[in-house]
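Q: What would this chain look like folded?
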Amino acid sequence: MRRTPKKEKLLYLDLRGLEGEDRTDSLLNEQKAVYILQESYLKTAHSSFISVEFAQQKDLVPLEEIMDCKDAGIKHQRVGVGLEEKFKTDIRQRLFYKGKQKDKRDILYIDGKDLDRYRITYKNEKYLRENFKSLLKGDEIVYFNKDYFSASVKMLWRQTADRPIASIDVARTAFANTLQVGVIKPSYDKSYSYLYILSIFNFTHLTGLYRRLVQEEG
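A: My prediction, written as structure tokens:
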């Protein structure tokens, strides 16, 4: 595959909300199309064509450059079986429970339902049994990254929401796989604060950009 030179210019015309070829021709005649350097899209997530305004922004820094972003929540599944059999298990009933803590060593965790913009609810009392390993059957596994659970401060966001929904945890709380986590890298902890990143993440205007990016990725 031949690589297109970075200095290649693309003709960009925003047709959102428009119908019919006549309107497209009219915009072209009105010189509404603009040229953008292809390398501008090397700065967007997955090189996506998000918007002309976004592509032409200066000094963009990808979130993953500032933060360690991980899918580190509690996951469980069967292994060595077909996809159809993978989730046919009562593992949740054995490993997790809700309500009053039965053993002080059991691990309190939160999931996507407990998180909203700028707010986390800890009172729903969901627990992973501390002795979960002894409750697993031969073809079952549970895995998570404990280092992110114990982080003194971390940003959490819903993994499958139709818009960015994030908050900050300072209680060293464990979390389910319906949440993802970000921890500011040491090289950026003097340049960016969690509240600053959180305010951008939850910014209403970002919802439109996020949904368009998701649509482009299918």
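The two ends are 23 Å apart (CA to CA).
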